[in-house]
Amino acid sequence: MPITTAYKTEIQRVSILDEHGNFDEKLGKDLIPDADLVRLYEAMVTCRVLDEIAFKLQRSGRMGTYPQNMGQEAPSLGASYVLNKDDWIVTCYRENCGLFWRGVPMESILLHWMGDERGNAMPREHFATPIAVPIGTQMLHATGLAWASKYRGEKRISCTFFGDGASSEGDFHEACNFAANLEIPVVFVCQNNFWAISSPGKVNCSAPTLAQRALAYGMPTIQVDGNDLFAVVKVMRDAAAWTREHGKPHFVEAVTYRLGDHTTADDARRYRDQAEVELWKTRDPITRIYDYMKSRKLWDDSKEATTRERAAVNANAAVATAEGIAEPHRQDYFNAMYAELPADLATQLATHNTHSLGQTEEAAHVATEALAKAHASHH
Amino acid sequence: MPITTAYKTEIQRVSILDEHGNFDEKLGKDLIPDADLVRLYEAMVTCRVLDEIAFKLQRSGRMGTYPQNMGQEAPSLGASYVLNKDDWIVTCYRENCGLFWRGVPMESILLHWMGDERGNAMPREHFATPIAVPIGTQMLHATGLAWASKYRGEKRISCTFFGDGASSEGDFHEACNFAANLEIPVVFVCQNNFWAISSPGKVNCSAPTLAQRALAYGMPTIQVDGNDLFAVVKVMRDAAAWTREHGKPHFVEAVTYRLGDHTTADDARRYRDQAEVELWKTRDPITRIYDYMKSRKLWDDSKEATTRERAAVNANAAVATAEGIAEPHRQDYFNAMYAELPADLATQLATHNTHSLGQTEEAAHVATEALAKAHASHH
Amino acid sequence: MATLNLVQAINLALIQEMEKDDRVLLMGEDIGLNGGVFRVTEGLQARFGKERVVDTPLAESGIIGTAIGLAMAGLRPIPEIQFEGFLGPAYDQICSHAARMRSRTRGAFTVPLTIRVPVGGGIHAPELHSDSPEAIYAHTPGLKVVMPSSPYDAKGLLISAIRDPDPVIYFEPKRIYRAFREEVPEDEYTLPIGKARTVSEGNELTIVSWGASVVQCMQAIENSGRDIELIDLRTIYPFDIDAVEASVSKTGRCVVVHEAPLTCGFGAEISARIMERCFLHLEAPVQRVAGFDTTMPYYKLELDYLPDAARVGRAIEDCLAY
Amino acid sequence: MATLNLVQAINLALIQEMEKDDRVLLMGEDIGLNGGVFRVTEGLQARFGKERVVDTPLAESGIIGTAIGLAMAGLRPIPEIQFEGFLGPAYDQICSHAARMRSRTRGAFTVPLTIRVPVGGGIHAPELHSDSPEAIYAHTPGLKVVMPSSPYDAKGLLISAIRDPDPVIYFEPKRIYRAFREEVPEDEYTLPIGKARTVSEGNELTIVSWGASVVQCMQAIENSGRDIELIDLRTIYPFDIDAVEASVSKTGRCVVVHEAPLTCGFGAEISARIMERCFLHLEAPVQRVAGFDTTMPYYKLELDYLPDAARVGRAIEDCLAY
Ligand SMILES: Cc1ncc(C[n+]2csc(CCOP(=O)(O)OP(=O)(O)O)c2C)c(N)n1
Ligand SMILES: Cc1ncc(C[n+]2csc(CCOP(=O)(O)OP(=O)(O)O)c2C)c(N)n1
Ligand SMILES: [Mg+2]
Ligand SMILES: [Mg+2]
Q: 3.40.50.970, 3.90.550.10, 3.40.30.10, 3.40.50.720: which CATH number matches C2-184?
């Protein structure tokens, strides 16, 4: 048999509630209880409202660069909804909706983009890692976090999110390969929104699907309509269950679209067709659930109005909290460097100087005091 | 259609002359003219003999660490045989046989492992890049080299070699992804020898095949019995032709085995079963061709003896050349740093000092002269 | 002669070199239709086509690694790394290959590569968008490291870098990308890599600096009212220690200013060299005004971190009073 | 008290910390059954099992990136990078994440990680197996950098590194892995990170060094017959500038010795600090004996490159004669 088959595979795509309102009863029935659906809907609306407010904050100089999540609310939300509360969720920056569902305060995310590290000081009980600025690097941390669970014999898994662009980075490959070969339970979720800033999808992946990235590792993989919350919930529930049971990784490609600019520093009109945006607006994950709930008589205009109002109140409260925080202090960034502030750094802090002549006796004394205090606070 | 098929594929494996002597006439006929086969056989034997000599050189302190190629002669040789002489060949360190076929002198490879950069000063007409010490990095250079051909409208392609271990590195992923998405003609050849030093294959790739790494990029891919020179020639010829025609990359997994230690610094008995080695000895690419040629009456004991003798003569001549080279000079490693030696470096060279007090007037004068000379030689 | 800012000067240099030499090509993330996130490559894809201004996958090691291959084949690639904080993934290809290929092969292969990288703080950007890693690359033999501080220098140094037969990291101080304009000749010109520029002459004290800090130093000098010589290093490797020596031998006092963390920043090398060369002329120890040995804080506190005219001013006073 | 070489001392420290603290695990290429390419982890997989001594895929960024995740989860991973030349692919995870996680999250997440890395030249190894990148990491705030020069120090410093709540790069000078043995206590002990060791006392001149160079310095001192104080820095960051200051204030003369290239090596920092702190005590400029500003040559010439007792001796003479 000179020519034989060495490998054969097939990747599925799941859709339950499509953009035309078609709902697959077989897969969709009992998937999300109505009461939950209403809460999930509200979560998406709140996230969208925050995006709009954040945009304005940036434009009026009250916040730095901000990446809107608009249009991509469903993948992280669906994941967050089905994961255990103590499964690690390791994100990039378009997973606000899932993080908020998990319990991460909105003001944390705002503070991050306001140039304040306190936004990243997430309480550990959220089992969420900080926003990852260097693209494609956080998936390795997800793999390490899940490895720790395995090491300890816990059932906790990791779920990590990243973009189509991120899947080009070497670290993505290494994260998948470690998880597959060392048998570490991670769900890798690629939010394929077809753009990496101005680079169209095929610059980063010219294969027919992003889901097939996983075939390289012999990893189970599936594609899902990422704007279909039902399909996301089903796929993520199955993937998480499989991962937890087998102690091995699973890949999910969530096909979605960012309706806004890459960040507030970007102008997407420079590189993409408005027609494409308009098309994707018809596939909006929020209106899809809205229409569905209406058709099921779960929803009406007054509920909608209440929801929108509550969303605005919550989002504005978060902004107020974020803006109301005290100014950060110089010592914050010095003291945060190590568990104990090194003596030399203590002097730099005390004198706010890096040149020795300015480090007078008095300053050195202050430095010594600061150091002693730092030590004391750790013992 | 809630569950649809997003992607479907199948990978083939090619074998023509197997370890039991079965020869597939349909694929194998006219593949390699008899006269060429004899030459190819001799090339493999020579490479094997050099390995044995190099081993002894290392053991007697006449050479540093050396990685034997034993057992893996066929993949690079088959590639080198079918590629155009001006296609780039971008290797790691187990492709001696292919490099020698290309025309790279044996003493170059020896010099490299004797700790002498002159071994890497390959004449450009070989279109071969130097041995890559950092694992997994050279595939990106292959992609860049082929990109240059595309940029210039030439038909030259790149063929790059790397191990199963190397396929774990992020750079491997980036090289494949660049080639696929930017449409660059590279043949990626993975020599899967089931070991990366002491790590068994599945630590680096737990998927059923290494060939499926390529599916991540939508890249055509195939598996070949890498100890079957006929199959390698067929697969490489097809892959190179496809790549040249389409201006896009192709992947080849050559399944093979290293019969020796990882390098002379390694002792493979620490981590692998002798039984496994014995099994693979029965699959040796050299004996396979030997048996085939005998069965076809192309070969006899006297031809074998002549070949072995010639191989030994050639290999020993290479050793003599490598060992006969003049001692390298200090200025070699200074002058090689930049097209023009920076003044400060010229002083370091002239004084063989990095401390200023030792840089006397006289030394500084010498430095200035050296610098002037270096300048002159470049204008 | 046009009046250009730094972005425009670089853009012009790229246009002229691309017109002159078809071995020159640009590659990087978002540099094509989008013109780069700082618009430095604006209009170039329209002008030169998609073959010469190439949007690459999002992978810095891939960008540099393939650029090395392009350069080994004789082209003159100019990869852009979007921010200095993303040089990290490319570190290995830069230091293990670009820097070593010529010496490894005794000149059989060379890597005439110019890596363009926006550098430094002060623009209210997110994390990893405000660092100053020049010392890392200055410590890596085989590389050249350039950092202009004005539009005029930017153009001349970039053209030199592109024509240089060895790999150059060309850092663009993003804080002054659009801070000011100056006259920049239309014609092509080069500035030597390895030669400093004396920004202002003086006899009391020497300031050595580079990149965006030069502007802070000019301010500090003006504020001080003292007779200070300001040397803009322009290139970090090779560096013009002769110019520094000549100046410090005259003034006897020196302050070095840079944004990177103090410890093992390039200021340490300048200080050590001055000690070695000007020991008997020194009237005070060399003072270093630098970033602190902390991570660059998020932007609410970045101005607290960056050396500014006030901190430079205090160093000048302390040094003069010594 | 056993008499151990450096490899054995490290092996012992690993065993003791693994027995004491089950959060400690080892990971890396070939560290399991094979015991590492230098046999430093010999026998540990047999003793502690495959869960605690893990052979990883061949990917350095993956090793450090997953180790960061393990550490964030509260474990104490000890990844091995096979040779310092292969830190390159891990540079980004080390510098962009391990070094920054605590400050980024204001302490919510920390990275108690010890990265073991054989370092330095002199063993006739291939390219990229003989470098000395300590200055690169000393210039990266958030990391600690340790380099022992003896079996006794190796054990004590490694235990400190493992217990340290912050990321430590623990460089092992491979040239002296088996060069000599000394008495190493059976019991566990720690040595403070940030404190130098005075190897020999003297009044005429101070030598500051670290790692394998310390041995060359001892030789040079012996050859010189002069009254020289030798300070082994032991830890590169934080570094014990107080010890250096005290010594140089006494001797007035200093030679710094290291294998890494001169320019922007850690010797530059030591020199700059001495100038800042001991200016009025200095009787000669600080001299640096270092690797040249070239790539470390292949092994035929590596001894020409490495600072040896003879070069240190010349610097001593020059400095004393100043
Ligand atoms: C290592 C690195 N390189 C470059 C950047 C700049 N950058 C920020 S976001 C981005 C595009 C990311 O695209 P994708 O992963 O698809 O995520 P999306 O923004 O589409 O959600 C780039 C290039 C970065 N942050 N990190
Ligand atoms: C980046 C890097 N990491 C580690 C090493 C050390 N090393 C040399 S060869 C090797 C194993 C390579 O395995 P593989 O790619 O399968 O090639 P093979 O030796 O089996 O031909 C390792 C880990 C290296 N040279 N470069
Ligand atoms: Mg995207
Ligand atoms: Mg292998």
A: 3.40.50.970
